[in-house]
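pls read this stuff:
=====
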Amino acid sequence: MSSRYVPPSILGAGVIVIGLVGYFIFSAVVGNPASFESVAAPTADFRITLWIGRALDVLVQGALVLSGVMGVVALLRGIRV
């Protein structure tokens, strides 16, 4: 596997562009709720279910995310910046 040189300016610009596109897609899909009062009651029930009733699932999801990040770091380790 050959190691290619990626200039920091191109890498930084790519990260910024991906971040902006992700932000615009997220804001278009999620949007802003009209009133926070209508969301408060379901949110409280969701928090109880997520953190108290399903704590083990949250730990497993955190471990999966961490392993994914470590996989990306291992793949990008060969790129010199």
The first helix runs from residue 8 to 30. The radius of gyration is 19 Å. The mean pLDDT is 75.
